[in-house]
Amino acid sequence: MSRRSVRHVSKAATLETKELETQANGTIESAKAPSKSKVTKRKITQVVVEEEHGTAMVEKGAPAAEEAKPKKKRKSAKDKAEEAIPLAKRTAVSSLKKSMYIGAHVSSAGGVHNSINNAVHIGANAFALFLKSQRKWANSPIPPEARDQFHALSHSHSFEVHKHCVPHGSYLVNLAQPEKEKADQAYNAFLDDLERCESLGIRLYNFHPGNTNGQDRAEAIRRIATQLNKSHKATSTVITLLENMAGQGNVIGSTFEDLRDIIELIDDKRRVGVCVDTCHAFAAGYDLRTPEAFKDTVDKLENVVGLKYLKAFHINDSKAPFNSHRDLHANIGTGFLGLRAFHNVMNHEPFQHIPMVLETPIERTGPDGKTFEDKQVWADEIKLLESLIGMDPESEEFKAHDERLQAQGASERSKVQDQVDRKAEKVAKKGTRRGKKKAASSDDDESD
């Protein structure tokens, strides 16, 4: 539209607006205010006015009594451009001393294809996402256009989604559910996710094994395996990954033996694997903090489960102390695990090519007191983890990082340690027996 036409339209719009205001006040000379019936039947035309933040619509001949609703301010082109600028460039994995693919669990709001843009935004070489809403059982299918964009973006950004994308399962699903109606509901939601994976070319899918609901553990494990076998027969390519858990209450998966027992009952072993969460492992009593402790834990994983089943990592520090059975994720190096634990992980040769996904907290408080998600946290943590590859843990550089991060998380560690100590004192006084109510409430901590 030319400047001249814009001026013409703007002038027309101004006149129409004044006319509408005059009609509303009932002061048009030599004309009666139109009746309500005539107003509603009157032909409505629209005048378009181009503005800085978009297009405003002024209705010619619109009912005078109807006031225009305030328009929601849209983001300017400048705002959108700034948001699109990557917070960190993706590191070429070939340039690292070891082939470690590191990323985070990013948002898929607005469509699954947006997860790839969000991964690129933080400089990730691996990522996780939710394939649908986690707040409800029934969800609409992935729109074909979103699916096609996911494929196109993964290709244009050189993401091998069949290797380095690990969607997270729904928190609503419990494959150990004993009641048939609820078990069927859980299975259908689980199968729906696997089918979504296959439509997107994703080969790895992570989920929480389940909860016994206070019933026999061996039977609960058998139910999980039965549901997995059924889902494997209904699909063809996705590898279902059992996530290790922190160990609250009736949750299954806090020991390597739990994972082993499920895998043993799987018919097609090619379709099952394990995703190790570092925070969960530490909280469940598997230490990673020193080279010796790290080796001992890796050896246990190999001897009990088998490293061939290790397909992914969730990389998280822990706000809670060792063997506390509390699932409280902390930012890398700020928790009880500490930076040395992640140095051990990043420099372990067999862990190459395995997707490593951050689930660390990024909620921060702004100057106005409101909380917001600071994705720069993930961008920085990815670079930090990459920098640990080949770094001497006795170097001044490593020690400086370690001291800074430990100081950053000191108050939170002290707070949680105090909670754990007070709880231990109560348990010591009352005995180790835990009531059903207490066990059920503790299950809520298992979240990521």
Automatic annotation (TrEMBL):
Composition bias, kind Basic residues: at what positions?
1-10, 429-439
On whether DNA damage is a keyword of this UniProt record, the answer is yes
- In what residue span(s) does the Xylose isomerase-like TIM barrel domain sit? 118-387
Q: Report the domain of life of the source organism.
A: Eukaryota
Q: Where is the signal peptide?
A: none
PROSITE patterns named in the record: AP_NUCLEASE_F2_2, AP_NUCLEASE_F2_3, AP_NUCLEASE_F2_4
The family database entries (PANTHER family) matched by this protein are listed as: APURINIC-APYRIMIDINIC ENDONUCLEASE, ENDONUCLEASE IV ENDODEOXYRIBONUCLEASE IV
Q: What is this protein called?
A: Xylose isomerase-like TIM barrel domain-containing protein
Give the organism the record lists. Answer: Monosporascus cannonballus
The opening ranks of the lineage are: Eukaryota, Fungi, Dikarya, Ascomycota, Pezizomycotina
